[in-house]
Amino acid sequence: MTHIWGTDAGAYATAPGFTGDKGKAFGGLSGKGAPGISPMGDISYQATDEVMLYGRVSRGYTGGGFNPTAAIPQLFESFEPEKLMQYELGFKSQWLDNRLRFNADGYFSQYFDLQQSVFKSSPTLGALSIPANVDKAEIWGMEAEALAIPFRGVEVSANYSFLAPKYTEWNDQAFDANGNPIFDSSGKPVFESVADQRSFNFSPRNQISVGLNYTAPPTTTGVFSANVNWYWQDKTVFIVNNQTPGAQADEGWAYYLVNGRLAYTGIPLQKGTLDLAVFARNLFDRKYRTYGIDFGPQFGYSINNYGNPRTFGLQLAYNFTAGAEAPPPPPLVAQAAPPPPPAKKKIVLRSVHFDFDKATLKADAKPILDEAIQVLKQEGSVDIVVEGHTDSVGTDQYNLGLSRRRGETVRTYLVDHGIARSRITAEGMGESKPVASNDTADGRAQNRRVELHVK
């Protein structure tokens, strides 16, 4: 397996079929320990060639502060840092000769002193937004995603997420029936238990999206693509303390949206290329709210923000540098034929292969690249072109980007080992230059490669 580091410091260990790491970044702990440090650890296991299992534990931190918009001195209260402990288990898999991908995970997040803003309306103090700390809160959730390639150029995707948040302990500032904060005789706020009276805002319980994308084979005049996607989300609330009777403005109902897009890109022009696209959003003109707030009987009105109605648009993008034509050559002058140029040197790294849909170096590629580095150091005047390649699985546009990332990966490795960046040009060839048949798994594995050519 290949492991990518993303922490400031840590340790790494492997066993047959396993990888794992642990690290730490600036932040704070949710329990005992030195403040300002947030640890993270994960472990993964490659169960089969198709399935990888993983688990992760991490802690997070958000700094505290104070209420900068208090209406009275007693409300100029500070709020504590927010601390998080999170656990996650999941798997990633690829099936049917890498034409079907299915990933899923489940997680549990435990918050301490979660920072939330509470809205209150008072006839004497006006509208109040008071930052507060939730003593304890938790979120249970899961996510699943699938991507299928039933035919060449066609991608079908589906995503689902489930969220079950809950305030388990919350003692907050008490208010009277008129919306005014209550303080004791010494001027300190009076607290009350409100955990069962409040809801997580902007946290729909279920969300689903489905997409269909088609990319036609590239032609000399450009590349055509079409996309349609459907999104649905469950009802949600906009205000944490959504307790005003009949305050529908504080809640957002469930809704769905359908969007579409047609594009023709890479249209060659004299000194560049043109990308042309038409799009439609909210095709069925669904009415939905993105935010709302009810100011209660003290003010007698509410505010609603609605999402955009059915919308059509046209996008044009001109790429000035892409495909620029060279100036015409000067008139020919009769002269003796020059000697033939020396044959170009070529280093073909056929053994530098990549996993499907990956642009990270495998362990067996590094010794081969180290040999190439020695050759390049001996030939100090040689400049090279790094070519990345892919198999034919996926759309042409996606594979072109993947091949560029593979080329950049090799270029970075060479630079990190002493080869001047100015000597290396990285290019992506996509799936245009296969060295083996893409009809077999072995052939596609050979095509997922990088080659080095001397300029």
Order of helical and strand elements: EEEEEEEEEEEEEEEEEEEEEEHEHEHE
Number of helix segments? 3
Instruction: Report the sheet with the most strands, covering strand number, pairing sense and barrel closure.
Output: 13 strands, antiparallel
Strand proportion, as a percent range, falls in over 45%
Structural class: mainly beta
Mean pLDDT: 81
Overall geometry comes to: elongated
Could you tell me how far the N terminus lies from the C terminus, measured between alpha carbons in angstroms? Answer: 34 Å
Helix content: under 10%
DSSP summary, beta strand count: 25
**Total domain count:** 3
| Order of neighbouring strands in the sheet with most strands | 1-2-3-4-7-8-9-10-13-14-17-18-21
| Gyration radius over CA | 29 Å
Low-confidence segments = 1-34
Per-chain topology:
Layout: E1 9-15, E2 18-26, E3 37-46, E4 51-62, E5 65-66, E6 78-79, E7 82-95, E8 100-122, E9 126-148, E10 154-169, E11 171-173, E12 191-193, E13 206-215, E14 223-233, E15 236-237, E16 251-252, E17 255-269, E18 272-281, E19 289-294, E20 302-306, E21 311-319, E22 346-347, H1 365-378, E23 384-388, H2 396-416, E24 424-428, H3 441-447, E25 450-454
Parallel strand pairs: 23-24
Antiparallel strand pairs: 1-2, 2-3, 3-4, 4-7, 5-6, 7-8, 8-9, 9-10, 10-13, 11-12, 13-14, 14-17, 15-16, 17-18, 18-21, 19-20, 22-25, 23-25
